[in-house]
Amino acid sequence: MGDQAIDARGVGKRFRLYAQRATSLKERVLGLRTASGQDFWALREVDLAIGTGETVGLIGPNGSGKSTLLKVLAGILPPTTGSVSTRGRIASLLELGAGFDGELTGRENIYLNASILGLTKRETDRYFDAIVEFSELADFIDTHVKHYSSGMYVRLGFAVAVHVDPDILLVDEVLAVGDEAFAAKCLAKVNEFQREGRTILFVTHGLGTLHEICSRAVVLNQGRVLFDGDVGEATGRLRALLGVAGTTLSTDQGTKVLQLLDARCADAVTRMTELDFYAGDKAAVEVDVRALDGAPPVEVRVIVTGPDDYPMYRMTAGPVTFDPAAERQTVRLTIPSLPPLQGLFSLSVALVDPATNATMDVHRFGERLRVYGPADDAMITADFDTDVLDQPPPPKPPASPPTQEEIANPGRPGAPTTFLRQRAERLAAAEAKEGTMPAAEPSADREGSPGAGVGPEGSPRAGTGPEGSPRAGPGPEGSANGDGGRREARERAR
Hints:
Layout: E1 4-20, H1 25-30, E2 36-51, E3 55-59, H2 66-74, E4 81-86, E5 90-93, H3 106-116, H4 121-135, H5 150-162, E6 168-171, H6 180-195, E7 199-203, H7 207-213, E8 216-221, E9 224-229, H8 231-242, E10 258-267, E11 276-278, E12 283-291, E13 298-305, E14 311-320, E15 329-335, E16 343-353, E17 358-372, H9 404-408, H10 417-434, H11 483-493
Parallel strand pairs: 3-7, 3-8, 5-6, 6-7, 11-17
Antiparallel strand pairs: 1-2, 1-4, 8-9, 10-12, 12-15, 13-14, 13-16, 16-17
Helix pairs in contact: 3-4, 3-5, 4-5
C-alpha cells in the first residue's frame, strides 16, 4: 500500500430495489405476493488512492454515489466487489445525527460516539472539556439530543470527530447545516489537520470551499469516477455535467448575427493559454467571436467574477466591427498589471450594441483565471487622504424629497435620479464653501455593482488598483475610470 492512507480498488456497491414485496406476515408465509426487484449499482469500478496528508474533495451531482463511497471507505458498508484498505484511525461525520441516540443527553452521546470511533472512557474523559468547548454547547450538554436542532447536531458530531485524534477524517456535506461562524471554525480545524499531515476526504457542494482547502478533487457521476485531479478542472467538469458551464445567461434576438465562442486568459507575450498568474503579472483576456452578415459594431464587456459570481472588476473594449467572412475573430484585452486579488475567477463576457444597448450574446466561462500572491496582500488598496480633525461633523440637513418627475422616472438602481440631484446639491454646497470642487470626487454614475474607489460620503468601496490596472468595478460606459469619468459624472449629476 506504500504511503497511501486510503486505497480502494475496483470498488462496487450493489443494492436491491424492490417494486413490490410482502407487507404482512400472512403474505410472506402464504406466498401471496412474491417479492420482485432489480439490482441497483450505487458504485461501479471505483479506484481511489489517497496519500497520507492529502486533502481531497469529493464532488458530483445528487445521487452520484458520494455518500455511499464515504460509508464504504469508513467501513460502515461492505463493498460488493473490490477491496478497501485504510491505514490509521478513521473519524467520520457522514449523516446528521449518525452515532447519536436521541434518548441520551449530549454528555452521554459524547461517550457513546467516541466509543464507536475507538476511544476508551479514559481517553474520552481527557478530551471531554475540549469537545464541549469546541461545540459551544455547554449550556445544553445535559439536554436530550432529540431536542437539539440540526445545527446543534452538527456542532456536537464534528467536535467529537475532530477530537478523537484521527489519522483520516471523512466528512459528508452535513457542514452545510451549520452557521457561517461555526463553518469558519471547522475550516480552521481542517487547516490545522492539514499542517499536522492528516488525511481528509470530504463531500461538498460548495465549490468555493473546495478551491480554498483542497489540492485535488474527484468527480463522481452515476457511481463512477468521472475525473480525478486538479481542482479547477474538476469543478469545470462538474459544471459541464450539470449544464451550467459556459451557459448562455441571457440573449436577445441579435444572437443570430453575433456569437461568443470562447474566452480565456493567456500569456501577454506568447499568447499561450494559461490559468495561473501571480498578482502584478501582465496578462491578456482573449475573446473569440463569430459574426454573420448584418452584425453591428459591439462593445466587448468582460467582468471578472469571484466566489458566488461576485463582480471584481470590468473591462470594456470597442466598439469593435467584426468581419462576417472570418470564421472567428479574437478580441484581446491586455491587463498591464493584475490587481492583487487572489483566488480562482471566472469570466462573464457580453457583446453589447452601444447604439441600442441591446445584449447580442452573453456567456459565463467558469474558472479561467487563478491569481496567487503574498498571503498578507490579497486586497486592493484604495487611494485616500488623511486629515486630523478637532471638530465633530455638522448635523446633516434633511434631504429634499423627490420631485414628481423623479418619482415618475426614478432612474436605474445603481444611480437613482433623486440621489443624483441631491448629490449635485451637495457638491454645489461644497464648492461654494471651499471655492473649488473636491479633488477626490468619486464617479457615482456607474452601472452594475459597487466597484473600485471611494463611494459616496467617503465610504470605502472595493478599492482601486495600481495605476494602469483595471479598477475593481465598472466605470462609466465607454470611458476610463479617471478624470474624464469624474467630469462626465458631474455633468450627468447636474
